[in-house]
Amino acid sequence: MNIVFDFGGVLFRWHPPSLLARVWPHRVADAAQGEALAAEFFENYAGAWGAFDQGLIDAPTVIERISARTGWPPEEVAQVVAAVPDELQLQPGTVALIEGLKQAGHRLFFLSNMPAPLADHLERSHPLHQWFEQGVFSGRVQVVKPGVEIFELACRQFGVEPESCLFLDDHPVNIAAAQALGWQTLLFRSAEQASQELRARGLLSAAPQSVRQ
């Protein structure tokens, strides 16, 4: 099986309300306020941040546009952007899952909406080439999930057919897009849940040690 991993929220921590609570304690009083501010800041990954993900604008421009739209001071917006690399902490349970899948003989790839500077950071900081044969970062190819183009590009680049791929992502809209193109899918909620589902599908023979209870 060709198993394709999303990154943010799957292999790497990505929880914008908590990120904003850490960076902007003066603005985030509780979880509900963190959710509201995250929705306003990232615009559901459309708007300026979506253009950043797609490689259409750089970090100074995304800061300028978010500040202009919201009225937040540009230096505060810049603090959030600068804190994103530290937010993307590796999730050990997913690493154990990857290792278990490799041991089972599956081919592993990745497909991530990620601005180019953050893609560079992840490649410098982690052995992605050891875990995955290949991968696609949206910021380098200038197309994003859930668009059809990025899934088609991934299949061409990986040299695989859609129906031979199992896609793990934490966003239902991306899962739905992949399903519409004939990919098999698994909505990722945790490494333990994904491990259980993969075992149920016969793709993983035993739970990786790190995600056992």
TrEMBL record:
Signal peptide: none annotated. InterPro entries: HAD-like_sf (IPR036412), HAD-SF_hydro_IA (IPR006439), HAD_sf (IPR023214). NCBIfam families: HAD-SF-IA-v1, HAD-SF-IA-v3. This is HAD family phosphatase. It comes from Kinneretia aquatilis.
